[in-house]
Amino acid sequence: MADPKREELQVKAKRAILVSVISPSNHIEKDQALDELKGLVETAGVKVVGTLVQNRENPHPATCLGKGKLEELKQMVKHVDAELIVFDNNLSPSQGRNIEEETGTVIVDRSELILDIFATHAKTYEAKLQVELAQLLYFRPRLKRLWTHLERIEGGVGAGRGPGEKQLETDRRLLDKRVAELKRKLSEVERRRERTVSHRFQHLTVSLVGYTNAGKSTLMNALTGADVYIADKLFATLDTRTRRWELPHWGEILLSDTVGFVRDLPHHLVASFKSTLEEARQADLLLHVVDSSNPEVEHHIKTVNKVLDEIGIDYKNAILVFNKTDKVEDRSKLDVLRLKYENAISVSAVSGEGLDRLSQAVIDRLASGYVIIEVETPVGNGKLLSQLEDHSLILSREYSNDDSRVTVETRIARRFLPLLKLSDETELKVKGEEQPVPEGVVPEETTHEV
Ligand SMILES: Nc1nc2c(ncn2[C@@H]2O[C@H](COP(=O)(O)OP(=O)(O)OP(=O)(O)O)[C@@H](O)[C@H]2O)c(=O)[nH]1
Ligand SMILES: [Mg+2]
């Protein structure tokens, strides 16, 4: 079988025209309509040689663009010698086929482009499996169009005849077999990961989520000193990375970085990336990172919330982090945002500004789930004592007269209580709830240390 994705996705270094059909009710400015798509295609290595935007209440059912604009596009293709047309819209299989026939040029829609970027950037075994699965599911109903591509590429062999139903049937069967195989492999990986995630459950975890290019990985590095891949490209990170984060005067928790979100994420990709976001689902707290210098910032916040909601992650308790404050040109815009999202924390992962406030906000939030306990146990109860060492903040330790028993007073996350290895000879008393530290009450050195 011809490998559809390989042929389809060779968009690199191609001369492309970008096209978008926007609805006036979407309130997208005409000159900003293609900004994000430009970012996406540049990430994919495409050269932009022309752009075309049409205002239309609804995309044309057969060709997305209206008749007149389609004609304009055909002229433009000839004029700028384009090899590729990239649509910001998602096209149905028949729309793609029709436009391709009309213009005689390869068409890539938004989903295909994102899939292409994901495919190039996927590093881990799991990310690769997920992307391949998403691609196959996306291309299955589009096989006919792919064959048309191939014929053109191969110099018109059999041109006009089409692939024939028999060929398509064979392709579909092969494709379905591969899909089943990928699904099986993925569920193996998932089972393995569930085990590692649950190994970690004794640590408090915080997860970074947010729109692609918001600065999640940069923030991760700034907070943990970890060496995570950063790039001024969309989708630099395609799988979850977890690092230790030492919260000042508090202790060690885990911080995990995740794949970025984007509007109209291909449907299949949302489904297959669900598992990559498992860490976010299990996290005690989410930090929703936002590029506050981006004019589309509010759209980005909404998109991320929507996707989180779709995959069943509660976004309402996330701490909103306005990143890149150093890059904001119009400070009054930032002020308006801050008024609107009054609990958001403003930071710059690059200059370090605000990181202390962010740590403090995280501590406050996590601390609201803490209790002070007193545990009295034989000194030989090593398992329990090392649990307390590792996962709580010990306030005092007192030994009995004969040194056979110890009483430990400690501050611990409430959710760890059921996990403690208490024996019959152990006594546990809950002494009080730990209250969040009100802002401004924190001593100077705490607020200024990162
Ligand atoms: N000026 C400025 N640039 C920043 C800041 N934080 C991140 N950046 C830049 O923004 C770009 C994207 O940063 P990343 O950390 O890769 O973004 P990300 O959210 O992890 O992106 P994906 O992994 O693609 O989802 C890089 O060029 C960073 O250097 C900041 O606070 N200020
Ligand atoms: Mg990243």
Distance between the termini: 56 Å
Radius of gyration (CA) equals 27 Å
Order of helices and strands: HEHEHEHEHHHHEHEEHHEHEHEHEHEEEH
Q: What is the CATH class name of the largest domain? A: Alpha Beta
Q: What's the average pLDDT?
A: 81
What oligomerization state is this entry in? single chain
Apparent shape:
elongated
Cofactor: Mg(2+)
Family: Belongs to the TRAFAC class OBG-HflX-like GTPase superfamily. HflX GTPase family.
GO molecular function: GTP binding; GTPase activity; metal ion binding; ribosome binding
Keywords: Coiled coil, Cytoplasm, GTP-binding, Magnesium, Metal-binding, Nucleotide-binding
Question: Could you explain the architecture of this structure?
Answer:
With 450 residues, the protein is α/β, with parallel strands linked by helices. The chain has three domains: 4-172, 3-Layer(aba) Sandwich (Rossmann fold); 203-365, P-loop containing nucleotide triphosphate hydrolases (Rossmann fold); 369-433, Alpha-Beta Plaits. Helices cover 41% and strands 20% of the residues. A six-stranded mixed sheet has the order 6-7-5-8-9-10, with helices on both faces. Strands 2-1-3-4 form a four-stranded parallel sheet, sandwiched between helices. Strands 12-13-11-14 form a four-stranded antiparallel sheet. It is elongated. The relative contact order is 0.08. Bound molecules: guanosine-5'-triphosphate and magnesium ion (MG). The site of guanosine-5'-triphosphate (GTP) has 23 residues, from helix 9. Monomer. Associates with the 50S ribosomal subunit. This is GTPase HflX. GTP binds at residues 210-217, 235-239, 257-260, 323-326. Residues 435-444 have a biased composition (Low complexity).
